[in-house]
Design goal:
mainly beta; six-stranded antiparallel beta barrel; 1 helix
Length: 102
């Protein structure tokens, strides 16, 4: 069940609100969309008694803007191109892309 309308989601990702402009390339075809870019903190304990810490670029956008996105496609945000390494649709209209800077 979708909790927000298409208009609600468009407003949320609008560049006048929380969003930034991006160019996503899906199967070689580019299009302009709005997303929210975050650099998520993570810590991994490899079992050596200390954690490895870092950040992971993650962007979130409307699922309708990311139809058919696949691992290996790219997205450019603020002149930085990222490879898409994971696609996480939430089933209610929003998709999160796990990114890796090229």
């Amino acid at each position: 069940m979708v909790l927000e309308s298409a208009s609600d989601l468009a407003g949320y990702f609008d560049t006048d609100a929380h969003g930034v402009a991006a160019t996503i390339t899906i199967n070689g075809s580019g299009s302009s969309i709005n997303v929210i870019l975050n650099k998520e903190y993570f810590a991994i304990d490899p079992g050596l008694g200390m954690e490895v810490e870092g950040t992971q670029p993650v962007c979130t956008g409307r699922s309708t803007d990311m139809t058919n996105v696949e691992i290996g496609d790219t997205i450019q945000i603020s002149s930085v191109t990222y490879n898409i390494i994971n696609v996480q649709p939430d089933g209610v209209g929003v998709t999160t892309l796990i990114l890796e800077e090229q």
